[in-house]
Amino acid sequence: MKKLTMRITKLFFGLFLYATGIVLTINANIGLSPWDVFHQGLSNTVGITMGQANIIGGFAIIIYNAFAGEKIGWGTISNMIFIGIFVDILMLNRLIPVFHNIILQIVMMGLGMLVIGAATYFYISVGLGSGPRDGLMIALTKKTNKSVRFIRSCIEITVVVLGSLLGGSFGIGTLIMAFAMGPCVQFVFKLFKFNVKGVKHRFIDEDIKYIKDRFILKNNRDNKVDCEDL
Hints:
With 230 residues, this protein is an all-alpha fold. It has helices at residues 2-27, 34-46, 50-67, 74-92, 102-125, 132-144, 148-165, 172-191, 204-229. Helix content is 77%, strand content 0%.
């Protein structure tokens, strides 16, 4: 129980950090990240918050990933729901300032990317499944047999185009994050000496099987034994 509590705490700390990093890059005000261009476009079109747009986008992606055969973890579901909630809490309460000095804006964007890198380490290292968008990248890589770099680039170009058509804004910061986010995440992973390939994830279907074996089948066996005794 103590180990599980620590894992859940680490997961939600990572999700809150991720939301903080997202808001830092948004409030830097020199261009949204590719996915946030789409989220903003969806937000403006439907009349919802950025956080709600994040949740809706994540939900749609999880459905696709499930049909594509990608396993879903509790961390995946938590990522979908709580990052959006935390983004709204931070933005609607204006807990992170907006800067207008270009130097401070660039520093803020760089800090946001590093925070997202640290957040990625925290939530992936608990081994409860990757985020919906990472799962989409993996699913498309398997289906097309193309490189991860190619698939990620295609996804980000697609969401920027769709987001722009929906009214999302992009700028120099969008290009910076498209090229610099990966190296920032990799830098943080090296800092924590974290090998993402060494993480063994536990997925929801495994927990369902455990519950079924532990309780349902056990009860059936016990009932069978009782009937035989009678």
